[in-house]
Amino acid sequence: MKFELLLYIFSYFSLSLLIQGYQDLWRVKRLKNTVYHPPLLLAMTRHWLSLFIGVVAFSSFYYVKHLTGKEVSIDPLERSSQIETMVLQSWSDYVRNGWGKDIYHPISHQGNDNMAASKEPLGWIIVDTIDTLLLLLNNTQSEHRRDQLIQNVQLCTEWCQKVLSYDIDSPVNIFETTIRMLGGLLSAYHLTQTTANSTIDGQVFLTQAVDLAERIKPAFYESPSGIPYSSINLHSGEAIRNHVDNGASSTAEFTTLQLEFKYLAYITGVTEYWSLAEQVYKPLYAENDLLNRYDGLCPIYTIPDTAKFHGNNIRFGSRGDSFYEYLLKQYLQSGEPIYYELYRESIEGMKRHLVRHSSPSGFLYIAEKPWGLHNPASAKMDHLVCFMGGLLAMGATEGYKIEEARRQPWWDSIREEDWHLATDLTHTCYQMYHQTPSGLAPEIVVFNDKGAREVKENGWWKSPTGDFYIKPLDAHNLQRPETVESIMFLYHLTGDKKYREWGAEILESFEKNTCIHCDDASKKAYSSLDNVINEPFKRKDNVESFWLAETLKYLYLLFQEDVDLKSTIFNTEAHPFPKMDRERLLDLNLSTGWSI
Ligand code: DMJ
User: Is 511 marked active-site?
Assistant: First the structure.
């Protein structure tokens, strides 16, 4: 704020200097009509100098106002306790008014429901949140909050012991159930085994995880290609095709099960979990000639029976995103080189076909190819794509701090290029928050890019810099994590406090514009937003489990010290797993079971 005021004053003076210089110039020019007349030269110099100062001052002002962060306090301890309070408020509201339900409406406290059609709970919110509570428990400086956290972890543990049963007689989505439930149980188990707090016995989480995995397992045996259909009945083991899209499964869905099943194989020694999860890749790459015909970029649907792609829609947003994420993360988790090579191919494909820039600021974004690789791009980008900043940064550095990574023998110009894409994309995603009136990003934006096909229509909201638009139906905010996820990775890989400032600014916007009962600490909770543009920002009466599992967790990690990204791999739902030990992998005979 102070800096902005200074720039205002500076701009004012340079403007008056400019006017004065212009008057002098005019006066002297009228007197002597020669360019070499000394007073004329002086007046001209004054004129051009003031013009130059003015331009610099105005552009700095513009830059400060639209492209950099607002001044926010970034005391990490203060921020950590703020986030602990937000987690506990959001969570306690759920415990009071929605306990045990998979779907929760924080405004009405009504219409609570469960994910499975049979109405039995899967533990959607409870299981997804346990490791966030454990993480806070291990780091909080407050005695009072520590007690609250212990009580709540115990509550969850008891619920998992006494109430939770995955013997559910109705279909559930394999991907969502794996990343949230299997992932949540495994990371809860991992954290209870490795943290100082031994009061929690995490065995129940592993028992439930094994039971759930056994119930999902038949899905891998059902289709001729080994690619699972999209759902499975957890009681009968019947796998069920997607009812729409010609029975196609989302490509990102069956390629986002591997970290969880491989980690389970690593804990239990059951190699079947490993090989089943891995079996999807060979047919996918072979049947589609994915590296040659598609440059490593997948259309978002695949027919499970044939392993062939369905349609031409290629994007890093919904249904495409975590295919790329799990290629890299499998390499980081187990060190299998094939997955880095495949990731590399995809990223090079992305650079060749999808990386573009907006006008006028040149924000880097990842475009879509809805009509196939060799047809025009669309300038639309889902907020979901914003995880790519963190992923590219991790792919370049493998979790080493950037300066250290640059000294490694494997560092090269390609990684340097990936690194720059990572920082530029994260900046773009930050702008998607910074430029809206609520300070929160919408679900989807369309970039101002004449070279990409997306016709601007009346009624689209235009960002202050003019770089992106928001369509009325895309203006909601589900409290998604992807931008703060990338910001968290970039902070710990660089130590650059700018990232904490960005994170603090976004945190403030969540705090201010997604709270409900905002002034009553005993009832305060948080909810999604209907619209990030029009004030007052209307709440949506909906909270997704990833608000507690991911968004608040990544924000919390942003303000912790010494987060070791070399030894932790976050699944796509932000559940942390440990990097696998090579010796143990060899002992258990767990290794890549296929080649290209
Ligand atoms: C999460 O459930 C996972 O990150 C998934 O991969 C896609 N995104 C949502 C949160 O936005």
Answer: no
Burial group, residue 76, by CB count within 10 angstroms (0-12, 13-18, 19+): middle
The Å distance, Cα 481 to ligand 1 centre, comes to: 8
- The reported pTM is 0.91
For residues 551 and 87, give the distance between their C-alpha atoms in angstroms, rounded to a whole number: 10
b/e code 526-540 from CB counts within 10 Å (16+ = b): bbbbebbeeeebebb
The answer as to whether 45 is a domain residue is yes
Tens of pLDDT, residue by residue over 181-240, are 999 999 999 999 987 566 788 999 999 999 999 999 999 999 999 999 999 999 999 999
Average pLDDT, the chain: 92
Instruction: Identify whether 143 is a catalytic site residue.
Output: no
Distance of alpha carbon 565 from alpha carbon 437, whole angstroms: 34
Is it the case that residue 19 has pLDDT exceeding 80?
no
Q: Does residue 7 fall inside a structural domain?
A: yes
Nearest CA to ligand 1 atom 8: 384
Buried b (16+ CB within 10 A) or exposed e, 291-319: eeebbbbbbbbbbbeebbbbebbbbbbbb
Examine residue 6 and state whether it is found in any structural domain, yes or no.
Answer: yes
Q: Which has the closest alpha carbon to 323: 272, 274, 257?
A: 257
Q: Domain count for the chain, please give it.
A: 1
Would you place residue 73 in the very low, low, confident or very high pLDDT band (cuts 50, 70, 90)? confident
The single residue of 102, 443, 505, 544 carrying the catalytic annotation is: 443
4 is catalytic: no
Mark whether 176 is an active-site residue: yes
Binding site members for Ca(2+):
572
HSE value, Cβ hemisphere, 13 Å, CA-based, for 89: 22
Nearest CA-CA partner of 445 in 486, 500, 417, 483: 483
Q: What range defines the domain where residue 39 resides?
A: 2-67
Report, as an integer, the average pLDDT of 539-567. Answer: 97
pLDDT > 80? residue 322 = yes
85, pLDDT greater than 60: yes
Residue 372 vs residues 313, 375, 543: alpha-carbon distances, Å = 6, 6, 35
| CB distance 543 to 104 below 8 Å | yes
* Residue with CA closest to ligand 1 atom 6: 572
What is the Cα–Cα distance from 384 to 401, expressed in whole angstroms?
A: 25
Amino acid identity, position 34 = T
Is residue 138 a part of any domain in this protein?
A: no
Q: Which amino acid is at 515?
A: C
Is the predicted pLDDT of residue 11 greater than 90, yes or no?
no
DSSP state of 586: H
- CB-defined site of ligand 1, < 6 Å: 322, 384, 480-481, 546, 572-573
Residue 232 backbone dihedrals phi, psi, to 5 degrees: -145, 145
Task: Encode pLDDT of 244-278 as tens digits.
Answer: 888 999 999 999 999 999 999 999 999 999 999 99
H helix and E strand count, the chain: 24, 16
Which of 124, 125, 127, 179 has the most ligand 1 atoms within 8 A of CB, as the residue to mutate?
Answer: 179
Contact between 386 and 502 (Cβ < 8 Å): no
Q: Provide the strand spans (E) within 331-422.
A: 355-357, 364-366, 380-382
Q: Is the pLDDT of residue 427 over 50?
A: yes
- Whether 173 contacts 230, CB under 8 Å: yes
